[in-house]
Amino acid sequence: MINLILFGPPGSGKGTQAANLVERYHLVHISTGDLFRHEIKTETPLGLEAKSYIDRGALVPDSVTIGMLNNKVDAHPEAQGFIFDGFPRTIAQAEALDALLKEKGSPILALIALQVGDEEIVERIKKRGIESGRVDDQNEEVIRKRINVYKQETTPVYDYYNLQHKSHTIKGVGTVEEIFSSLCTLIDAAVAG
Ligand code: ADP
After folding, report:
1. Distance between CA atoms of 55 and 141, rounded to whole angstroms?
2. CA distance 60 to 112
């Protein structure tokens, strides 16, 4: 199995690259942000709870997020591997993910962070907000809050996998094709061991 974590601040291009990687490596893409948006749209109790956090740029509590993620992974026993996008965002989530994958006998192969500067991120997300209608993408204060949450609560996850010698960083600025090519080079090297 090829299990990857696509890492990086909000708006760094994880979703775009994940879609390309799914095709190349035949993986199942799990985006916790997309899962939450689906729950919100279908007005489930989980969605209602998540919305109150998401709209103000905070993280949804670990217990909710981890449960949802476990269910999604368990729903794909046939998978040849997973791309985790937007998860794990806390150390508790990383520990839960490692425990889940240990059960399956196939740990994380690599975490790859897309590096993009703060001001570029704010511009990208505002543009996405206009196109997508996402509430959390339309308010600059909420966008900056999410960048801060990423720096304070989520970057420790990079260090966590770095201790396992699995963390990598690539430049997230350039054309989609250039960034995809850097990602593939890195993944192919990790697969080759
Ligand atoms: P972005 O990366 O652009 O902020 P996402 O779609 O990944 O967007 O996530 C949107 C929101 O959903 C986050 O700001 C957060 O509130 C919530 N969320 C997504 N993934 C997680 C997670 N792993 N843990 C907690 N909250 C999450």
Report:
1. 11
2. 23
Residue 9 near ligand 1, beta carbon < 6 Å: no
Q: Is 89 in the pocket of ligand 1 (CB under 6 A)?
A: yes
- pLDDT, tens only, 74-112: 999 999 999 999 999 999 999 999 999 999 999 999 999
Q: Which residue is closest in CA terms to ligand 1's atom 9?
A: 33
| 92 neighbors 36 (Cβ within 8 angstroms) | no
| CATH classification number, 2-117+154-192, choose in 3.10.129.10, 3.10.350.10, 3.40.50.300, 3.30.360.10 | 3.40.50.300
Per-residue confidence (pLDDT) for residue 147, from 0 to 100: 98
**pTM (global) more than 0.85:** yes
Sign of CA dihedral 76, 73, 180, 165: negative
133: confidence class by pLDDT, cuts 50, 70, 90: confident
The secondary structure of residue 43, as a DSSP letter, is T
**CA-to-CA distance for 50 and 65, rounded, in angstroms?**
9
